[in-house]
Every structure is written in structure tokens, then in C-alpha cells.
Amino acid sequence: MKPIKIQKITTTNNKNLITNLQNFIIKEKIHEAALARQTGIPQPTLHKILSGNTTDPRISTLQTLANYFGVTLDRLFSNQAFKNNKALSTGKSIPIISWTDCLKSQKIIKHFSSDNHDQWVIVDDQNTDLRYALKSRANTEPQFLRGSIFIVDAKAIPSDGDLVIVHYPETKEATLRKLSVDGRETLLFALNDKTKADPLTKSVKLLGVVIQSRYSYL
Asked: 23 lies in which domain range?
């Protein structure tokens, strides 16, 4: 059996790894949450790799990703993996809105245009009518670096382990929670307090599912 070559994670090949994984995700038309579910990799762990927030990812985790995309570990780190693929930069823009505006996102998204809104992000999926983006806040750290962008699908059906945007009654802003299905009960966990959970009741409005998170050092 040929031994696995252990990659030394340097600044350069870590950037290659991030770029290649993002391109594989676009090529396969899968979002971050679904990739986490299908590979069994926790979404916060996957996000740390994709955002560059870890410079020493487990080889077993990278091998799982390589196996999923049908490539070798070497290709994950190659700077030639997508050199001739020009289609990956195409897409459609969705608005980056506030945590207050997303309370009425389904009504206001269609009214945003380049004439009245100046913050946008490009996504690969053309079906973007009910998608929007949010900027991370201090209470999402350290799982997500400040400045991360959450891509939210307002019509997606959440699954166990997904990150969701919810609105609690008597509050003026939406908030990010991790959804957990425990038998017949659906619970909402704060990112920074896994000991406290709120039941997803009729009074709590589900505004969307985080299907991708992004971070750029540029």
C-alpha cells in the first residue's frame, strides 16, 4: 500500500487548499451545510478550514473531503487544480442586509437594486430570489471570524445540525442559532452556550437556513 503523503501546511498551500475547496463546492453545486452533513464533518470545523481559521487541519478530515470530491490530497493543495476553469467566477449577486432588515427579508429583497443598495455578494446558484447575506457579529465568535458572511436561504427546510436565522418575540433583530432535533422536540442552541437551549415554538419565527459562510483575508 502506498503511504499517504503528509502535507506540511504553509501559508501558500493553505491558500491553495481554501481556494480549491471553495471551487470544488461551487463545481459540485453543494452548499457548506449540506457538505458538512454528507461528509460527517461538523460545520464549524468545515468553516474553520474554508475560512483559513485553522492552519493545521486534521489529515483525516482533509482525506474525507478529498474522497468526497474524488481527488487526491495532493490535488487539494495544488495551485493548478482549477487554472483553466473560468466558469467558476460567474454567478449572481444577492444583497448583504442587516440583522434587522432580515426580519422582513421576503418582502424587501426583491426591491433591492444597485441603485438603492451598495453591499452585494456573488453566489453561484442562479435560484436566488429568496436568498440574502448577513455579516457576522461579535456573538458569533470564535466559531466564525468577525467579518464572515453568511449566505441564507429563506425557503430552505432546516435539518438537524443546521445553522438557522431566527427571530424571537419582543426582539428587534434576528439571531443565529444551531438547530438540533431531539426526538419530537426541536431545540435552538446559542453558538457560545451549548448548555442552554430554547425550544423552537410557534412564537419563534424561522427566517432561513445558513447554507454557506465565507471569509476573505483580502
From this structure: 11-77
